[in-house]
Amino acid sequence: MTLSDILHHRRAVRNFDPDRRLDDQIVRRCIEQAVLAPTSSNMQLWEAYHVTDPQLLRTLAHACLDQQTARTARQMVVFVTRQDKYRTHAKANLDQSVDNIRRTSPAEKQDKRIRRMTIYYGRIMPFFYARFFGLLGCFRKMLALVIGLFRPIVRQVSEGDTRVVVHKSCALAVQTFMLGMSEAGYDTCPVEGYDSRRIRRALNLPCGAEINMLITCGIRLPDGVWGDRLRMPFEEFYHKI
C-alpha cells in the first residue's frame, strides 16, 4: 500500500474478528518498526509490552472498562514511558556517538565533535531529565529565564515539561506502530479509557514507568469501524504564513 492507502486504512477499530488470529512475529516486527520513530535527542525513553496471553488479555480488557475493542482484541500492546532510564540511555547515546565520530568524521574534527557530544549527553541530558519533587524543574526554569534574557533558549524545562517531551516521543512510536500494523493488514485502536493502576499491576510495571497508550489489535469485523471518519475542516488546522 502507499502511505495514503495506509492512512485511509487505519481506523480505530472497536470490534475484532474472534476467529482470525494475529501472527506474533508480524506484530513484533511492527514494534521493531516503531523503534525507528524519532525521539527527542534520540533518548528513546519508552518500552512496549506485547500481550498475547489470553488470561492477561481478559484482565486488561476489564481494566479498559470492558470496552468492546478490548474485549474482542486478539492481542494488545501497551506503550509506556521510561524517563527513569535517562542516565543509561544518555550514556548509550554518548558511547554510540563517539564510536560513530571516530569511524566517520575527519581526524581533525573528531576531538571537537566528541567534546560536544560529551557535554550534551554527559551533562545536559542528565540535567534536563532529572527529577526531584519539582525542585530541579524550578531551578531549570529560573536558569532558562536568566539565560533567555541574552539569547534564545529552550524554556520548557520544568519537570512537567520534560514529562510531556517523553510522552510526545512515545506517541510518535505508537503512531508508527499503528501505521505498520495497517501496512501488514492488521487493525488497531488506541484506548484512552482505562484503569491505569490495574494495568500497572497486571503488567507488573516498574515504578518509573508511565502508561502512554494501550493499543488493541486484531482484524476488523464489518461493524468494527463506527461510521465515516469525522474531521474538522482543513482550514481549522492549516495556517500558511
Task: Describe it.
The structure is a single chain. The chain is built from nine helices and four strands. With 241 residues, the protein is an alpha+beta fold. It starts with a helix and ends in a 23-residue tail after the last strand. The model has no long low-confidence stretch (mean pLDDT 97). It has a four-stranded antiparallel beta sheet, with helices on both faces. It folds into two domains: 3-84 and 162-236, NADH Oxidase, CATH 3.40.109; 86-156, no CATH class. The protein is 50% helix and 11% strand. α3 runs antiparallel to α9 (196-203). It is globular, with a radius of gyration of 21 Å.
Q: Layout of helices and strands, plus pairs?
A:
Elements: H1 3-9, H2 24-34, E1 46-51, H3 54-63, H4 68-71, E2 75-81, H5 86-104, H6 107-129, H7 135-147, H8 159-183, E3 187-191, H9 196-203, E4 210-218
Antiparallel strand pairs: 1-2, 2-4, 3-4
Helix pairs in contact: 2-8, 3-9, 5-6
Biggest sheet record: 4 strands, antiparallel
- Going by helix content, strand content and strand pairing, the class is alpha+beta
What is the CATH level 1 assignment of the largest domain?
A: Alpha Beta
> C-alpha Rg, in Å?
21 Å
Backbone shape = globular
Please give the domain count. Answer: 2
- Helices, by number, come to 9
E-strand count: 4
**CATH fold name of the largest domain:** NADH Oxidase
Largest sheet, order of strands side by side?
1-2-4-3
Strand content: 5-15%
**Helicity level:** 40-55%
Just name the CATH architecture of the largest domain.
Answer: 3-Layer(aba) Sandwich
**How far is it from the N-terminal to the C-terminal residue, by CA?**
33 Å
